[in-house]
């Protein structure tokens, strides 16, 4: 099973118990700064490991609740997969609760749990009033059906309940894309004595490994990942959804700052003009005016700019989506689909949020024609919509594609002729890039298996596919394997699959000892000692013995008579030839003993092996040759 990585966030008003809840869940105090201890409020993002098993790893971000630290809050929640909205029982919904809720909505965070904390301070009747207050606030949002958990962090009441709920929800959720190009928005930069510059952040997508060449964008600084840590433990790789600290070579702390992005590819776009679709908060305190200064929060970046409308000059209130443009004072790195928050610099308030339609924005004329063009961009071309649907679902039938893309059958059929789309099973479509990606993944798995099990021919096909079936359908995986076999990238015999270029072999450090074992076995001809004696004499360890026995027998270098005795493959073949030449169509045990001069302890297992290999068939007290 492929391991999945998630990061959850604690959000809510100041002093509602986010840090205490995080500590109760993780035994980590995320308030580490001196001023945080003195003022008893969170100023910077706090991080802690929550849970890990063979299937899943979960990290926690504790975000500041104070209005003055909203930038840090946005930087934290921008990369989360689930939010715990913390509301204190003795205060209920407060201004920052509402603002955090708006921010989460704009950032597209859909998975949530409501934690009502400090329940020891109020009676049950008051808790019900707080619940009603929260439900009213959540009405019409993606969190309106979110479960409630009553928490007292000091006595640990509700802690195990909320922990198990978090684990259950995330085990049902898809992880971020680990296949794409690596991207990590930087939220912390610091130095470690003797190590140098370290950056920290949540891996938005892709994978990074030690030694990999990277770039810090938008500056374009070339760096290398010297070391990687996940929760203060060294790790050779970091995956999408994980919190990671990366020690970078080739750059100093002064060269970097929060908001920059660490990437592995130049495919990401650096821009100052982005076409966007936005929504505004429900209760705007002030008008949003044409070309008004705004503060954009995207990833961990905070950039000043102006908002440009093409169909209006101001917004008083608006329930729908508005297509417009942001013109920024500094370059940012972004791509289509990225979520962001908009805030007014003065007076400071969150005014809305949305997603990037096109990071390559140009200057357009005011008017409906521009809105029409932006509408087309927003929806995407038929090819883009098909690609997006298949990237999400991995494989779809034509009826499913019609539903997902809102394209008619004729248009779909026309665009599906493109070589980038592949029909398999006669009914399902997928992307050529996905087939290639899956094939490469299976190739890597087989390569790893061969390196660790050099004496085994291959791995059970079902075992490979089972580990990938959470992400891809069995039919798609089957097609990829069979397609690779037809191209002679993989070979298969029965249920076992292996790389075409692989041949089973004894590990290099045991090859000479194995040669000595075979030489001794051959020298003793038919009157061999126990096989265990040869293995011990050759210095073969017990841990290797089973695999070596199977390998030597599969390669016909030895023939196992039973659990105790084995003949060298050449000796066995010569004995069969000798016995066949000296007997008629059938023979008895006595005749065989005379020909081969063997005692009963060798003779009976030898004859039974002849039966098992199909050379002979036992009929009463005689053996009949099958091919004579």
UniProtKB/TrEMBL annotation:
Cellular component terms (Gene Ontology): cytoplasm
Major subcellular site: cytoplasm
GO molecular function, one term: RNA binding
Cell location: Cytoplasm
InterPro entries documented for this protein: Beta-barrel_SelB (IPR057335), EF-Tu_GTPase (IPR050055), EFTu-like_2 (IPR004161), Elong_fac_SelB-wing-hlx_typ-2 (IPR015190), P-loop_NTPase (IPR027417), SelB_WHD4 (IPR015191), Small_GTP-bd (IPR005225), T_Tr_GTP-bd_dom (IPR000795)
Keywords, in A-Z order: Cytoplasm, Elongation factor, GTP-binding, Nucleotide-binding, Protein biosynthesis
Ranges for domain Tr-type G: 3-174
PROSITE patterns given in the database record: G_TR_2
GO biological process, one term: selenocysteine incorporation
NCBIfam families: selB, small_GTP
Job description of the protein: Translation factor necessary for the incorporation of selenocysteine into proteins. It probably replaces EF-Tu for the insertion of selenocysteine directed by the UGA codon. SelB binds GTP and GDP.
Stated name of the protein: Selenocysteine-specific elongation factor
Organism, as annotated: Neobacillus rhizophilus
Lineage: Bacteria, Bacillati, Bacillota, Bacilli, Bacillales
Gene coding for it: selB
């Amino acid at each position: 099973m492929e391991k999945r990585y998630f990061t959850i966030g604690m959000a809510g008003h100041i002093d509602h118990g986010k840090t205490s809840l995080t500590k109760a869940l993780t035994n980590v105090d995320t308030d580490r700064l001196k001023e945080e201890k003195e003022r008893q409020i969170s100023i910077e993002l706090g991080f802690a490991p929550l849970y890990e098993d063979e299937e899943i790893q979960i990290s926690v971000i504790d975000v500041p609740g104070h209005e003055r630290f909203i930038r840090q809050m946005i930087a934290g929640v921008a990369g989360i997969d689930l939010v715990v909205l913390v509301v204190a029982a003795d205060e209920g919904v407060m201004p920052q609760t509402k603002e955090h809720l708006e921010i989460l909505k704009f950032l597209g965070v859909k998975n949530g749990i409501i934690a009502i904390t400090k329940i020891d301070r109020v009676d049950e009747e008051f808790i019900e009033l707080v619940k009603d207050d929260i439900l009213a606030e959540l009405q019409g949002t993606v969190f309106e059906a979110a479960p409630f958990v009553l928490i007292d962090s000091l006595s640990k009441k509700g802690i195990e309940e909320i922990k198990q709920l978090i684990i259950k929800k995330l085990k049902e959720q898809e992880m971020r894309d680990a296949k794409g190009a690596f991207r990590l928005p930087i939220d912390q930069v610091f130095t470690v004595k003797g190590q140098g510059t370290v950056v920290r952040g949540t891996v938005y997508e892709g994978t990074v490994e030690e030694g990999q060449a990277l770039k810090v964008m938008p500056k374009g600084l070339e760096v290398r990942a010297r070391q990687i840590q996940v929760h203060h433990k060294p790790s050779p790789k970091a995956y999408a959804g994980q919190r990671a600290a990366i020690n970078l070579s080739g750059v100093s702390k002064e060269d970097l700052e929060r908001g920059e992005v660490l990437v592995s590819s130049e495919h990401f776009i650096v821009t100052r003009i982005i076409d966007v679709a936005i929504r505004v908060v429900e209760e705007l305190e002030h008008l949003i005016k044409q070309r008004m200064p705004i503060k954009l929060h995207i990833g961990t970046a905070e950039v000043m700019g102006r908002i440009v409308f093409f169909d209006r000059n101001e917004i008083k209130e608006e329930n729908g989506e508005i297509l417009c443009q942001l013109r920024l004072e500094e370059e940012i790195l972004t791509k289509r689909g990225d979520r962001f928050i908009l805030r007014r610099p003065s007076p400071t308030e969150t005014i809305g949020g949305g997603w990037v339609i096109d990071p390559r924005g140009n200057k357009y004329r005011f008017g409906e024609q521009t809105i029409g063009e932006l509408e087309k961009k927003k929806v995407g071309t038929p090819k883009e919509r098909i690609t997006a649907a298949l990237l999400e679902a991995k494989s779809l039938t034509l009826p499913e594609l019609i539903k997902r893309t809102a394209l008619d059958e004729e248009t779909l059929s026309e665009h599906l002729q493109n070589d980038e789309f592949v029909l398999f099973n006669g009914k399902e479509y997928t992307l050529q890039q996905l087939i290639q990606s899956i094939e490469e993944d299976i190739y890597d798995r087989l390569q790893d298996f061969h390196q660790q099990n050099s004496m085994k021919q291959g791995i059970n096909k079902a075992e490979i596919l089972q580990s990938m079936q959470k992400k891809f359908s069995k039919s798609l995986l089957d097609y990829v394997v069979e397609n690779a076999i037809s191209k002679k990238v993989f070979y298969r015999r029965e249920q076992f699959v292996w790389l075409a270029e692989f041949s089973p072999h004894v590990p290099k450090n045991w090859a000479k000892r194995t040669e000595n074992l075979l030489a001794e076995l051959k020298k003793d001809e038919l009157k061999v000692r126990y096989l265990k004696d040869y293995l011990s004499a050759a210095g073969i360890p017990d841990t290797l013995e089973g695999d070596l026995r199977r390998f030597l027998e599969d390669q016909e270098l030895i023939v196992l008579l039973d659990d105790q005795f084995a003949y060298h493959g050449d000796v066995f073949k010569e004995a069969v030839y000798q016995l066949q030449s000296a007997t008629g169509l059938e023979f008895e045990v006595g005749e065989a003993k005379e020909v081969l001069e063997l005692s009963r302890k060798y003779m009976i297992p030898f004859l039974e092996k002849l039966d098992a290999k199909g050379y002979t068939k036992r009929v009463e007290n005689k053996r009949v040759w099958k091919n004579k």
